């Protein structure tokens, strides 16, 4: 492997959470007029949160059918 190039798992550990995004999610959800696009735009500001949501949606308990979700 070339110098400076690590495994994807190592890169994922370097991505920082964006706590301000996490705190905004319930504020948006509590509004009566929010859209799925607005919520997705907010969640994608935090790559770790977005990955967690995609992982949850694709888990056995939440998956609908055989189609895999790959983006918000």
Automatic annotation (TrEMBL):
It comes from Moritella yayanosii. Gene3D superfamilies: Hypothetical protein af1432. This is HDOD domain-containing protein. Residues 18-65 form the HDOD domain. InterPro entries: HDOD.
